[in-house]
Specification:
Strand order of the largest sheet: 4-5-6-7
Number of strands: 7
Structural class: alpha+beta
Largest sheet: 4 strands, mixed
Helix content: 25-40%
Number of helices: 10
Distance between the termini: 115 Å
Radius of gyration: 38 Å
Amino acid sequence: MSEPAVVERSRIGSGSIAIDGVLVALSVAAVAVPAILIRSAPPIRSAAHTVEQRRQATAETPEAPPPPVEPIEYRALEPDDARAFNAKVPFVTGPNPAARPFRFAGDLDNRTRATDCLAAAVLYEVGDDAKGQRAVAQVVLNRLRHPAFPKSVCGVVFQGSERTTGCQFTFTCDGALARAYPQPFWDRARKVAAAALAGSVFAPVGYATHYHTDWVVPYWQSSLSKIAAVDTHLFFRWAGWWGTPGAFRRVVGTVEPRIEQLAPYSPAHKLPEVLAVEQEAGILTGSFAPSALPRPSSDDPVTFLVPLDALTPDKWPAFAQATCGDRTRCKFLGWRDPAAVPSRAGLAWEPAALNTMSFSYLRDRGAGVEKQLWNCQLVSRPAASCMRRALPAPPMPPSNIRSELPPLTGVRRTGDPAPAPGPSAE
């Protein structure tokens, strides 16, 4: 064999060996790489495991009952100390989903009562502040759909109000409702309430069921999750499943109770028998034309001095209420004899005027007063509705034997400085 032939054969043999090496390497990689991928891949979840996860996520209720609704009790802290304490409580991490829209399904009468109750809550809890009112309205509706609370809007708002302690909204049991807000305040609060009952959602507070101002610390705070702040109010939800969206799926009622405390502010909360009497008297039917209503006394804008000779006694209450309209304070004083009507409000309380007065209607919603009194010598009425007769003033003693009397104490007279206001409760 010649030398060139030997060299060529040698080259062919070397190339064959190299190709064989490549093929062996590829074979090893074909086995090793899938094994590595299989070891590093995440575990495969079975279909049964996925179904169980979904069942737990959508379960209607857990086995444990809803948590108890604790009464409002506060830690003994000064406002500044409470603010410092609240500032150290962290907000929970994680999602804070907005509540689902709520739409009231009751009839017009029940919707009106629900609107009144929700308006009272937002107005008396935060005042005339639209943002704060929307936040409070959302909390009320969140409670309404949670099985731990009553099934009506009015039931949620006035829960525990029959007790001096234990009410859920403090204005329902601390006498605050006797303080009447101006009608425009009520009108704006009712708009916020009506919008919430028609599906408006205030997303920042999520599914919060509790809140408090930052200058107090309720005892229940430590067991709830802090999720939002709106101005000076802090909002909380229950920890665990009872604070998740799945817990807020309770079917609510469509019947709203009448709340006696709201009767002065809304006919919808008056008892049917009271409404029947008022309707018969013409209060709600507008039987008195505005031009026929008297004007207030020149020396007192809330006092009306009225001759009653043109009306029968059964119309006097309706005429008085129509005259007072929506005023928070009003004094309607009437005389059957036009000649006996005083010329000024200041003279109406003289014994002669009081003894001839036929009827009076007095209203002071700020003090919770609204009553009517009759001269029972002219009109037969129960003794509780009769005016007290004025006694003649005793004669003054002769000036030569009149002694100096010590000054009165314990009575603030005109011109004395007003007392300093006491601390206000939330």
